[in-house]
Design brief:
alpha/beta; Aspartate Aminotransferase, domain 1; Aspartate Aminotransferase, domain 2; 2 domains; seven-stranded mixed β-sheet; 15 strands; globular; binds pyridoxal-5'-phosphate
Length: about 400
């Protein structure tokens, strides 16, 4: 059956995804089931997206109830769940206003536009090895040649600096710098965790130079690192930040949030989206946040994170492992060789779903609801496989 899917995919779809030979048809909590009924433990969560587990009953029910009432009207009219979601995010973030869109790349796009509009300046500084999305604006911020080169020329006035290097930022800032955009922890770049004081120092430089700080929390946000947003972990308030992925537990949505005095620089017509902030997405996001609060999910992340890092001690000294790093439930295992894809395939054979970037960093992004038994299973599988190298 999978061979049939592979054949049809080749015939009917754009050839942009390198897929593993598995098709999932059902999920429940931390588990996935493929077309043959085989069960897998999911330690990838749709790439840091299905944070509250597959088919989360509460969220599914809220989506179904909303779908039966109304799905779409457009932003020409007031949308009650959109306003309610913005109010919840305002309260959690302690005072940021929202603009809703449909993906991470769109949230970054909106942030870049707002930064230029709010400051009247043009230049955006971002970091090498970063990932901010693939539309031309977001791609111009993305700091990886492999994604950029085929599509040059990109948007002018983007500069790149080394991640975790404040001196490099100081040198790069000019009179025309509108903003610096950073991931608090680089995700697609290989789970690169900066020094604890890095973001604080960047913020100080921004304040001194009248430059906005944009944090791309598309991957780190919504509890992944044990706080609602990673900026809370580092005790730094950005001027603008971006959310998507887990905001609605897998239902497509993106959000760009900004301090009110900055967001208020956007005027009627400056930005918009047909689907942005629609009923279903906002209900799914509201339900996700309610679930996080009601079930104390952030606490679970903190506790289970300690446990998983302790268990990871069992593999960190294996010959093939170079480094284990991460925060919360955003974990990278760097290998000494580029064999990541092969390892992921072996994990799949053993009923474990994990991810890989740059072919040498395995990444574990499990749903935030996992328990010790899940961690034990995953680490045992990994240990068994990695020991053979
Ligand atoms: C930090 C970051 N920003 C932006 C994006 C782009 O998000 P999307 O794929 O929803 O457009 C991603 C996706 O992986 C991401 O990790």
């Amino acid at each position: 059956m999978i061979e049939e899917l592979i054949k049809k995919e080749k015939k009917y779809l754009a050839n942009v995804y390198k897929r593993f030979k598995v098709a999932f048809v059902r999920g429940k909590g931390a588990y996935l089931y493929d077309i043959n009924g085989k069960k897998y433990l999911d330690f990838l969560a749709g790439i840091a997206t299905v944070n509250l587990g597959h088919s989360n009953e509460y969220i599914v029910r809220r989506i179904c109830e909303q779908a039966e009432k109304i799905i779409h009207t457009s932003n020409l009219f007031y949308i009650i769940p959109q306003i309610e979601l913005a109010e919840i995010l305002y309260n959690i973030s302690k005072g940021y206003k929202s603009f809703f869109c449909n993906s991470g790349t769109e949230a970054v796009e909106a942030a870049i536009k707002l930064a230029r509009k709010a400051t009247g300046k043009k230049e955006i500084i971002s970091t090498y090895n970063s990932f901010h999305g693939r539309t031309l604006g977001a791609l111009s911020a993305t700091g990886q040649d492999v994604y950029r080169k085929p599509f040059e020329p990109l948007v002018p006035k983007f500069k790149h600096v080394r991640f975790n290097d404040v001196e490099n930022i100081k040198k790069a800032i000019s009179k025309d710098t509108a903003a610096i955009i950073l991931e608090p922890i680089q995700g697609e770049g290989g789970i690169i965790v900066p020094d604890d004081n890095y973001l604080k120092e960047v913020k100080e430089i921004c304040e001194k130079n009248n430059v906005l700080l944009i944090l791309d929390e598309v991957q780190t946000g919504m509890g992944r690192v044990g706080e609602f947003f990673a900026y809370m972990l580092y005790d730094v308030d950005p001027d603008i930040f971006c959310l998507a992925k887990a905001l609605a537990n897998g239902f497509p949505i993106g959000a760009m949030l900004a301090r009110p005095e900055i967001m208020n620089k956007f005027e009627y017509g400056d930005h918009a989206s047909t689907f942005g902030g629609n009923f279903l997405a906002c209900i799914a996001a509201k339900a996700s946040i309610e679930y996080i609060l009601k079930h104390n999910i952030l606490n679970n992340v903190k506790n289970i994170s300690k446990y998983i890092f302790k268990k990871l001690e069992e593999i960190k000294d294996l010959d093939i492992v170079k480094e284990v790093r991460g925060r919360g439930l955003m974990i990278g295992i760097e290998l000494k060789e580029k064999i990541g894809r092969e390892i992921v395939e072996k994990c799949l054979e053993h009923g474990l779903v994990i991810g890989v970037v740059h072919d040498n960093v395995l990444r574990l992004l499990p749903p935030l609801i996992i328990e010790r038994k899940h961690v034990d299973f995953a680490i045992n599988v990994l240990k068994k496989i990695l020991k053979e190298y």
